[in-house]
Write the structure tokens for this entry.
Amino acid sequence: MKQTDVLHEGSPIGKSPPRKEGVAKVTGKAVYVDDLPIAGAIYGVTVRSKVARGHLRGITYHPGVPWEDFHIVTAADIPGENTIALIEKDQVCLVDKLVNHPEEAVVLLAHPDRELCEKARRLVELHIEELPPVFDMDESLEGDVRVWGDDNILKQFSIDKGDVARALAEAPIIIEGEYATGAQEQLYIEPQGMVALATPKHGITVWGSLQCPYYVHKALATLFGVAKERVRIIQCETGGGFGGKEEYPSMLAAHAALLAWKARRPVKMIYDRHEDMLATTKRHPSRTRIRSGHSADGKLLALDIDFRLDGGAYMTLSPVVLSRGGLHASGPYHCDHIRVRARAAATNHPPHGAFRGFGAPQSVFAIERHLDQVAAQLGIDPAELRRRNFLAPGQQMATGQVVRDNINLGELLDRAQSLSDYQAKRAEFDRLNAEAEQNGSPIRRGIGLATFMHGAGFTGSGERYLASVVAVDATPQGLVRIRASSTEIGQGKDTVFTQIAQDALGIPSELIEVVRPDTAEVPDSGPTVASRTVMVVGKLVHSACLALRQKLQEAGLVGESYTAAEFVSACGIFHQLGGVLRVESQYQQPAGIEWDDKKYRGDAYATYAWAVYVAEVTVDLTTYETRVDRFWAVQDAGKIINPVLAAGQIEGGVAQGVGFALYEKVVWQAGRMQNAQMTNYIMPTSLDVPDIFVEFDDRATKMGTATPNGPKGAKGIGELPLDGSAPAVISAVQHATATAVAAVPMTPEDLMQAVETAR
């Protein structure tokens, strides 16, 4: 019996079918951008400044290559605006006069011989009159040297709830702390790459490894000064992104397209790992000062938080990263008096940008580390301190948003403690560490935790402004085609969208195709960021599929139930009758959601995922190495569409969080990354990643109170695990060593210094 002859039994939601793109990837059939067979393609390279800040006074092309055979592009060759249009138009595509950071692009070269291109760019000399740079965010905020705008502030805002000054003055206990996080490299498997065709006659077409086709589309239309209809962006198979392929692909696409425009030939630009690490965006470094007021039993009476980010030389996405970081700065805790001051400072580092978690890992690290210090000073168990301060449904968050999720953080904490045997291990490790101290053993054991939440979707009014659209159509042969600009970057989007469509249509997966993102073929459903793909775009997919089903029912071609064969037949008849079987679904802001963009008041996110993470570590006080032995991740992320893919998201995020906590240190010198290779930028390997135990709480789903904002009650999940992994690990280190660590990454050298200082 053929698949199309049987009734599709049961919903696929909550099941884990094989990944749609999995076979192509594991067999090597998947086509990445560097695999594209583009006839006549030549190769492009970028000449970059090694200087952090200065005036470009001239360019010399030294002998040694046949320059007459090269295609050369400078800022003078740009047909439209010399800018990479994003939130603002402050970032140039190619330096015209002023260099603002190391690795800033100045000259583009193209030639059929790839090796000759590399030789040629070493023969280009940039004459730059240096100016004083600024690399420290606090120095930048002082404003003595202006590197951006009137005050070096890329974005700032305040969140105010209650009367913090009065509450702090009346609080019997005041505790202060400062916490820092460093830059982090994305280290996606596939480096950045683009192929471009561009002529005045035919317009611009770009294929690339990217997350957000319509970001690139907007940037190129502005750069070339052409109508949007003359720009086409096609996503190739993409080997990971993590946010690193959100904004930067617009820059690389611009460079490839400018060269193609001048050469009248297709141009391929593929970064090697070294250039990728030097030139592309990283996680924003942060510093956070917290002053909190408490009762003797640890209740939060006031929170005063100063949250700062190093944005680098241009705005890029710093305002959005700052917003999310500031909005998560007070954590999942109830407090009547909260003040958050958030600022992103411009420096002469290469621009920092989007990275999984989008500012929340920085601020969550700070509040979780601070609560550990509060617990230590008050002599309260860290888990108990958190329990006494948890938000509950009906209570207000810092922005005045009322918690609508049916969440019981105490139950999540209980479950995480039970799975990890937290209390028993804490007592056992205290005993073992005391014995080790007496016996002269360097080995210490610790267990720690973090509790946190992550808002799903764009911040505030972002989703309403996007007005995302998904289209679904069916062919005469009954093939349902899902059209959305959401990209598959390794997270399993195509598989999950297929499951959502199956649930709505009641047909087998073989009858569903997820169209590859191509701006000529798919509407703008927004970027693949912010844990919005399943919750926001997936909801649109579900709605569109239900509308398509209704269209067939209203035509009298199917009933309430039908076989797959009957569905195929109905699609054929509909087309024969002259109908176009296509529907669109557009985002509508959920009822009751209100947000003030200027005052930062109201509903910052439609819903949140909530989590408790526990880490167990071993520390060697001879080498000061830390090994994460086991890790438990318990979270409420709404209805889980595909358990295997969801667990994979958590496991991958925890692995990145371990790197953020212990290994991944960017070494800067004069604004340049000094360890831009994987031999000395250390990331966790399979030997460094612990056993990770993942559990999803579906209490709300079982009770019928799951969020209505996602398909079948699903929430965002992809960014969540980055928020709590690092603070849980460092909390465990503190338990093991009785030493408070206030910054990550915590390398062995850092831990040694902290321990010796504490002694």
Observations:
- Residues 1-8 have pLDDT under 50 and may be disordered.
- The domain at 3-30+468-586 is CATH 3.30.365.10 (Aldehyde Oxidoreductase; domain 4).
